[in-house]
Amino acid sequence: MFDFMNMMNKVKEAQAKIKEAQAKLVHLTAEGESGAGMVKVTVNGERKVVKIEMDESLITPQDKEMLSDLIVAATNIAMEQIDAKIKAEMKAATDGMIPNIPGMDLGSMFG
């Protein structure tokens, strides 16, 4: 027989673990590079850009459009990497907490 109270306790426990994991996300970082490392963007687990580094040779008026494109590319790469880290962190936090229900992917709730 299905134990509803046990399931509710597991859900509450999972919610607590998720909140705890979310609080740790700010400490996760990921870096994206573009232009063979000439532009580097660092983002944190809250999906915020925290640092942009660029080679000084790119900082000229004639290279403004190219620099913009490189920043966008590096930012997108960093965001993809942090999304993967967030998903892994949340999966680890909830692993074994809730039964594997087909079609229910808790990791997708955080990306």
From TrEMBL:
Main location, first listed in the record: cytoplasm
Cellular localization per UniProt: Cytoplasm, Nucleoid
Coiled-coil regions listed in the entry: 4-31
Annotated signal peptide: none
Keywords recorded for this protein, A-Z: Coiled coil, Cytoplasm, DNA-binding
Example GO molecular function: DNA binding
Entries under HAMAP family matching the protein: DNA_YbaB_EbfC
Assembly description: Homodimer.
Entry similarity comment: Belongs to the YbaB/EbfC family.
NCBIfam families registered for this protein in UniProt: DNA_YbaB_EbfC
Function: Binds to DNA and alters its conformation. May be involved in regulation of gene expression, nucleoid organization and DNA protection.
Name of the featured protein: Nucleoid-associated protein E4S40_11620
Species annotation: Algoriphagus kandeliae
